[in-house]
Design a protein that fits this description.
By secondary structure, the protein is mostly helical. Helix 5 (114-132) runs antiparallel to helix 6 (138-155). It starts with a helix and ends with a helix. It contains seven helices and no strands. The mean pLDDT is 93.
């Protein structure tokens, strides 16, 4: 455990808590968290997780902009759900992303758990994008990724990171419940 890991854990918890509460501040705090995790994942050779941070950085700026600029006539961006076809596309994108990234990590790096790492990376990219759009289904992906990442980090002896992802799992579940309530309330109001 090092200072970067400790700061990453602290900002990560704060970011997710802010996101559950649908606070725009989640995006700038998340950007600090991303920068810290970039350093950490480079140090422990989790290259797919490192690459994921670059994607998260771009998506965080996008999400920040999107949440600050709701559609005309709306005070905030509402929580919505995916269409059936979007759900199929999400699952297909996750599967293809996992296979392609996993194969690349096997052939081009010394990654220690290439397909597991790639699976959570693909899930997390999709979840982050969906979260930027305030899609309820983003939480399903976060929950699945948190379960797997908890195990990966235990395997890599990153105990604080593993504990963080176990807490993220609890927060993701709370996020799903909170966002589902918000989605239902907005449907009743319209």
């Amino acid at each position: 455990m090092n200072v970067i890991e400790i700061l990453g854990v602290a900002t990560g918890l704060w970011t997710v808590w802010l996101t559950v509460r649908q606070k725009v501040l989640c995006w700038p705090v998340g950007i600090v968290n991303i920068l810290l995790f970039m350093v950490l994942f480079y140090q422990v050779k989790l290259y797919a997780d490192l690459g994921l941070q670059f994607v998260f950085l771009a998506l965080s700026f996008y999400g920040w902009y999107y949440w600050v600029h709701p559609k005309k006539g709306e005070r905030t961006v509402p929580v919505t759900t995916l269409t059936a076809w979007s759900k199929v596309g999400t699952v297909a994108t996750w599967g293809i992303g996992t296979l392609v990234m996993g194969a690349l990590l096997v052939s081009c790096t010394d990654a220690s758990v290439p397909y597991w790492d790639s699976s959570t990376t693909a899930m997390s990219v999709i979840a982050q994008y969906l979260m930027s759009l305030k899609k309820l289904e983003s939480w399903y992906l976060w929950i699945a990724a948190d379960v797997i990442d908890t195990g990966i980090y235990l395997y890599k002896d990153l105990y604080l990171m593993s504990a963080l992802y176990a807490v993220f799992l609890v927060l993701a579940t709370a996020g799903y419940l909170e966002w589902r309530k918000s989605w239902r309330d907005s449907k009743k109001a319209s």
